[in-house]
Amino acid sequence: MRKILYLMRHGQTLFNARRKVQGFCDSPLTEEGIRQAKVAGEYFKDIEIDHFYSSTQERACDTLEIITDNKVPYVRLKGLKEMNFGMFEGESEDLNPKGPKEYETFFVSYGGESSNAVRDRMVKTCREIMEKEDHKVVLAVSHGGACFNFLKAWQDPAEELEKGFPNCSIFKYEYQDKKFKLLEVIRPEV
Predict the structure, then answer these.
(1) Does residue 190 have a pLDDT over 60?
(2) Which domain holds residue 154?
(3) Which Pfam families does the protein's record reference (predicted)?
């Protein structure tokens, strides 16, 4: 049976606006982030979603609550959290490695996660969600790095990465036979 997963990045946060590394640490949505979530909510208004999930992080929960006008129950899952950047949390993004290859293991020696660990965690979590019999169309709000690493499990992410993953980007996946296939990336006019 064909199922659909909408995997979405949260709205802009204070740390996004200030160009701070934000993984396991959290910062609130900005006014722009709230506006972005409202725009994304317009995209979803005519889509019948049967289950809702969010990372346990405040920025993702707040985004989902804005999208749904706080009218639906949802489940918070640690498996949807952003990558742990260890000692780099809260520091300037200028300190980040310059490309995806450099990201793979860079943060491990600083108490963070490898990108493959994030990928595996996201794949496991999203499979567990979509394997539930009554889950046909699901929205899960997560994070930019987590979404990128999830995509990396199913295809070369280079083409989509080049287009960027702005806040509130929506990755629409088909789920069938325990595999995800990217159908499109919706980048709402934000």
Answers:
(1) no
(2) 3-186
(3) His_Phos_1
